[in-house]
Amino acid sequence: MKIAIVEDDINMRKSLELALKDFKEFELFTFKNALDALKKIDSSFDLIVTDINMPKMDGIEFIKKLDTNCDIIVMTGNATLNKAVESLRLGVKDFLTKPFEIDDLVEVIRRSAKVREMHKQNEHRSHGTDRRVGMEDTRKVKVERRKQGSDRRKKFFGTSAVLESILSILKKAAKSDASVMLLGESGVGKELFARYIHENSNRYAGPFIALNMAAIPENLLESELFGYEKGAFTDATAMKKGHFERANGGTLFLDEIGEMPMALQAKLLRVLQEREIVRVGGVKPMKIDVRIVSATNADILDQIDHREFREDLYYRLNTIPVKIPPLRERKEEIVDIATESLFGICRKNNIPPKALSEEAKEALLAYDWPGNIRELLSVVERAAILCEGDEIRASDLFLETRKSKKGIRDLERELIEEILKEYAYDLNESAKALGMSKDRLEKKINTYNIELS
C-alpha cells in the first residue's frame, strides 16, 4: 500500500515515518509541506495522511488541489477540528484527533484499505450492468418521476419536531419564486433541503442544478455559471452552456455562496436584477427563468462588514432565510438515518443485511457529530463494510478516535491561541478569521489569560 504523509512538523513526521516503517505492507513517502507533495503525488498512491495547519498551503487547500482519487486521512488538533470536519465534504474518509496512538493510525489505514478494496470489487461486479428502467424515458415519464420527487430520490430518513417545522416553512416558500437562503453548518444536508423546495414548487418538472462554489477554482466559476462561446479562451473549442442555462425553467442551487469572489458577485446581482445572462466571450444577452436557492455555513453579515460580500446581493438572495439546525440538535433523527442508510449501503455493496445493536445506537446518540449527517453516513458506511457479523456493535463505529479529549473552554482557548499565532498576533486579522469582533476577541484573550508575543 503506497502512502504519502504530509506533515510540516519534523518531529511528528519522523515519528510517523519510523513507526509505520515497521509495517511491511506500507510503502511510505513523506513530505514537509503540501506544495512538495503536490509535485510528487500521482495516481499510484493509495492513501494520503495529511495535517491541516501547514505553512505555504494548508491541508484543506491541498486536498482541493489534489488530482487523484486516492483516499485521504486528516490529522487534526482540537483547534482545527472544524477544518477537519469541513474536509469531509471534499471526500476525506476519516480524521484522527491529536494526540493519537500509532495503533489508532494503523487501524484507520487498514480500515481505509479494506473499504477501498470492497468498492473496487463492487465496481467490477456491476460493470456492464444495465440499470435503465424498462420503459421509454419520454417527457411525460420524466415529469411523472419529478412529481414523485422525494419518493425516488434521496429522502429525509428521520423525523423530528425541528425537521417538520423546517419542512413546513420550506413548503410554503416553495409555492413562490422568492429566493431562499439556507443557513447552517457544513454537512447538515442543505442540498437535500434545496431539492425539497424544488420538488414542492411549480417548477418540479424543470431541472434542479446544484453548484458548490467552494469546489470550483475561482478562474472557472464564471464560465461554469454563465457558459462560454467557442473561442472565448484557449481551450474553448466549442460552445458550452452554463448552470444558469441548464437550470432554465427550474431551480439553481448555489451552495457555499459565501465563497463567491467579489467580482463575480456583481455579475450575479445583475443577472438577478435583469433576469438575463451573457456567456463568457459572447455579446448577446439571453433571458432566463430560474429560481435561486443559496446556502452557506459562513457568517455572511460578518463578511459584509469586512466588505467580502455585497450587501445588495445578500438581500436579493436572502428573501426567505431558513436556519438548518445541526444534527446534535436533532437527535431523534440519528438512529432512523443510520438504519435507513445502512440498508442502502448493504444493498449497494452486495453485503448481507446488517442491523445496529442497541449499544451501537447508544454510541451514535452519545456522539456530537461535528460533521453532521455527512459524517454519520461516512461512519455507517465504513461500519457496514468492515463489520464481520450481521450486527454492528459500538466498537465497529470507531468513534473514539474522533472524540476530543478536552472541554469547550479548552478547545476555544487553543483555537484562539493558534489563530493568533497564525496571524502574527494581529488582532484585526485574527478576529476576522475567528468570525468575531475585535472587542470580543480582546475580552476572550483577557478571560483565558493569553499572552500576546
Structure description:
The chain is of the alpha/beta class and 453 residues long. It has helices spanning 10-20, 34-40, 59-65, 81-87, 102-126, 139-148, 161-174, 190-199, 218-226, 243-246, 262-274, 300-305, 311-317, 334-348, 358-366, 372-386, 408-422, 427-434, 438-447, and strands spanning 2-6, 27-31, 47-51, 71-76, 94-97, 180-183, 208-212, 251-255, 276-277, 286-287, 291-296, 320-323, 355-356, 391-392. Strands 2-1-3-4-5 form a five-stranded parallel β-sheet, with helices on both faces. A five-stranded parallel β-sheet has the order 7-8-11-6-12. Strands 9-10 form a two-stranded antiparallel ribbon. The longest helix has 25 residues, at 102-126. It starts with a strand and ends in a 6-residue tail after the last helix.
Assembly type of the chains comes to single chain
Strand content: 5-15%
* Portion in helices: 40-55%
Mean pLDDT: 84
User: How many structural domains does the protein architecture include?
Assistant: 4
Spans of at least 5 consecutive residues with low confidence: 126-153
User: What is the overall number of helices?
Assistant: 19
Q: Would you give the CATH topology of the largest domain? A: Rossmann fold
Keywords:
453 residues; alpha/beta; Rossmann fold; Helicase, Ruva Protein, domain 3; five-stranded parallel sheet; 19 helices; 14 strands
Question: What's this, in brief?
Answer:
This protein has helices spanning 10-20, 34-40, 59-65, 81-87, 102-126, 139-148, 161-174, 190-199, 218-226, 243-246, 262-274, 300-305, 311-317, 334-348, 358-366, 372-386, 408-422, 427-434, 438-447; strands spanning 2-6, 27-31, 47-51, 71-76, 94-97, 180-183, 208-212, 251-255, 276-277, 286-287, 291-296, 320-323, 355-356, 391-392. It has 453 residues and is an alpha/beta fold.
